[in-house]
Amino acid sequence: MATSRLRAPGRPCLLLGAILLASCSDGGRGPPSSGEGASASTGSSASASTGDDPVAARFPTPRALYEGAVAPSCAGAEGSCHRGWAQPELSSFEAFIATAGAFCQTGVGDPRAIVDGCERPGDRLVFADGVERALLRVIVPEGAPRVPAEVTVALDGPAGDVSAVARVRAPVVEGQAELRQELRGVVFTPLEPASRLRLDLSRAGEDVARAFDLRRWPRRGADVVVGDANGNGRDAAGAGLRQLVPGRPERSFLYLRLLGDELGPRMPLVEDGWSEEATRALYCFVRGLPEGWQPDTRVADEPIAYAGCPSGPEDGGPAASDYEAVQAIFDQRCASGPCHGAERASGLDLRRAALAGGEVIGAPSHEVPGRALIAPGAADESYLVCKIEPGCAERAQGTAPMPVGGALGAEERAAIRAWIEAGAKLD
Questions:
Q1: pLDDT tens sequence across 132-150
Q2: Domain range for residue 136?
């Protein structure tokens, strides 16, 4: 892990959770505990697991990590960013572990600052004929009053029957979906393309009209949630980042913010107790949690699973063969919009079904037919890798590097390379 760090001397707080560009504002897998039937280990059991690892000796348990690094760096005093001010709240150990599974960047003041990986799945617009479409964007006319009389919505496909009452529901989570709004009094006008609608809200109640006003941020209560909150044309399909993802540090926003500035200013901004050892401790703590783990304070004194834990993804961590992380990159950056999804630009479909169906792995490239799109075990021989590497000189003449919206980050490219080198397996 890199040892050089950028700091802002005199800045009073650590920003682990929000994209804040000028100042603080709201903006191996041995499980320590599954949350069911777990009990706290004694201090002696934690000490016995440290061996000769200096990181394990300094931060043997999650409680030690919190008290020795997270608390003094993030929430050491009133007015610290993550002590009742910015999201996520980190003022207690309970608040720290409650970030597991929590959405990231919920406190960002401007939705345009949200990174694609932190966008929330969009609500669903359910039409009278049963057709459902994800809400990608809501466009409020410039100069609209506090309660807008009309908005335009962009969906992820053609609208259904607009002649009767529609409703908005949240995405299904754990088998249940929350009803946001019954759109009584709303008049729909189909637009071109067929995935756009104008909503006349003048005869709907104020609550319905304000629910569609994306100028009101952060979203709350019954407000609709859109899948392309930052408006860059890429929806939240496959967005895989959360504050902490049990078992998946490479998808954990808090951890990734410690590694570089691709998701916002590299953190922490001040030392105050943080160190490279703390970064590795956080990595190993998250990596050792079983996937699906629910926050449980009984994990506090369980030993962090340092055994077999590398210093980070670049040293062979879980990103080395993580198909799900790679598919999330494809979904967010390549298969959304008029690109390598349903539109199959250049004959390439990077959605999950296409990869599983043998259309990509081992298949020849349309641009360079003599070269495989993905050659399992050989990233340098894979034309897809050439397409995402800005400096590759072997792209077909007259073609551009991908994706169109801007180059992938170094960690994203490394994840794709590592997955291919590991055999491009889909499990």
A1: 898 989 999 999 998 999 9
A2: 119-211
